[in-house]
């Protein structure tokens, strides 16, 4: 039987006009922005695939919940709704809200890392590693080698290589490790999931050395969906059940609610460790706000609580990931080099293969993202040498194997016709790829440089 089309499990109730601009206009705007798509004005963008962070469309149920915000300083009813949602869906007992994910990372890193301790992670994420390093910790990459190869089709490229963990313990001792920071659907690897079998193996290993797992659960639902689709034994389980099992292997989590949780702002940390919870509550009042709001309005916490229930709807999450794959498959069919397998939140153009004539020191991914904007007004993000930053010890540029441009799909925002426009723009650029030139960095901030760095065309 022919496979039938499955449409989005929602209809559109409100629309937001977007501006179409001319090529000359965009040439001017990208130059003014120093060839950094972070520095463009949103109103000059036609289709915004910069990030899936805080860009989701909320449902009518979430919006109506925002009218029920209890804006009390202490003990807001919306905090208790959030706590209940986290307990039911993620399975962690104690919750500390924060204004977004990096604030939860800040608190966790400061409280859990002793200077000089290692934090193994399945590949780095920019803000997570930054907070580890600010707390005196040392990032240790424990992801499988396949993850660093854009063309390797491994179905679970987010997996941890337990031999790498063992090597670290053999060399430095278990006391030299603060905790394991494990991310589902690894952002910098291309949105690649880990398998439940791998997570179980990691958890058993960690138990032997009494090392806790703290998830960066930012895109855990997308990972749960891949397990359902790809891993033997999970096809008949709901995403909700799979997520719950995943989280059961951890002591706690931090999260940016701006992704899976379907809201525009927010985050939290959650844990089953009572002592850590007490310490985190002490710290959140210094940096964020009282422990029952942590920098969020009551209405924001209500929207997160409702988003947490909506995100585990099987039809919703399937449609979300299918849209990402729709775009990815169009590019693959046109012979455009992208990271495979296609990830959960984004399609990643492989700038090394797209622009083989531009050496990594001339920022090929940055140049490609700028060229894409000029071609069609589509905004993407560099995830390569600029994002990787400098080694804090040597001051040298880190040279990641992956030099990527991320086309990140916001949740419930664009239609597949928008995806067609993006695909056609990538194809047009690929035909004319010889004309794209490298860049020179003319301004470089000290930390998280990709947000504000400026460039000129060579
Ligand atoms: N962890 C992961 C895996 C993330 O992708 C992000 C944010 C954070 C933590 C930090 O959360 O932004 O709420 O402070 N990623 C965004 C992105 C910025 O575009 O990938 P935040």
- Secondary-structure-based class equals alpha/beta
Helical amount? 25-40%
Categorize the overall geometry. Answer: globular
Q: What is the radius of gyration?
A: 21 Å
Number of helices: 16
Examine the secondary-structure arrangement and name the CATH architecture of the largest domain.
Answer: 3-Layer(aba) Sandwich
Name of the CATH class of the largest domain: Alpha Beta
Overall residue-averaged pLDDT value: 97
Contiguous runs where pLDDT drops below 50 for at least 5 residues: none
Task: Indicate the proportion of strand residues.
Answer: 5-15%
Task: Produce a short descriptive summary.
This protein has 458 residues and is of the alpha/beta class.
